[in-house]
Amino acid sequence: MTDTTFDLTGKIALVTGGSRGMGRAMAHAFAAKGADVIIASRKLEACESTAREIEEEHSVRALPVACNVSHWDQCDALVERAYAEFGRVDVLVNNAGLSPLYPSLDQVGEALWDKVLAVNLKGPFRLTALIGTRMAEADGGSVINISSIAAIRPAPIELPYAAAKTGLNTLTEGFARAFGPKVRVNAIQAGPFLTDISHAWDLDAFAERARTSIALGRGGEPDEVVGAALYFASAASSFCTGAILRLDGGVH
Description:
The protein is an alpha/beta fold. The chain has a single domain (12-247), classed as Rossmann fold, CATH 3.40.50. It is 44% helix and 16% strand. It contains seven helices and seven strands; from the N terminus they run βαβαβαβαβαβααβ. It has helices at 21-32, 44-58, 72-86, 110-137, 159-179, 203-213, 226-233; strands spanning 12-16, 36-41, 62-66, 91-94, 141-148, 183-190, 244-247. The protein has a seven-stranded parallel beta sheet with strand order 3-2-1-4-5-6-7, with helices on both faces. α2 (44-58) links the parallel β2 (36-41) and β3. The protein starts with 11 loop residues before the first strand and ends in a 5-residue tail after the last strand. This is Glucose 1-dehydrogenase. Residues 11-197 form the Ketoreductase domain.
């Protein structure tokens, strides 16, 4: 008997920040379960490369779209392109994010603050408002917000980012109430994952800290987001909405 628990055959999944890291891993996973995917990120060339990989490996359609989610006009254009090409979106993953370094809190400039809030909070609000409304008016769907442990464990080195992710958690529950019963809205609250951004870390120092500050003693690999993403994207989570799942290896 074929297990169809996480089947996404015939579904359309849109992943922001989908050309690398956890976004790329989720896009591949959705495609492996039968979904056509829309890969959105700032750099079209990176989107095109990931789209080619997915089409060759999984024999589904993958549409690359350049989009900076910090700009509402680009969010609007992304939604219009998705619906023009596919007629609907069944799964939206708000994964695009950034957390720039700064030397001290008093040197956090207005431009940095605005940029962090725009990418991590403003963009997800706009995309969820637009796509969630269409989902609710049609056959429903699933929205997955990629949050962060910083939302509940804010560190001085990432306070603007932490504030944005706390806001994203709030949006998760609010949109779940706004768009139920047809649309499910949930969040994956990620801990430290060893994606491209980790190349800038002192990995030896991180590994030393992880042994005592993370129950599993390490950072996550990008593919380790896949199980949670498939759960929220598919009918496996049919009675789950407004939830925030910690996926952090047991940060304490």
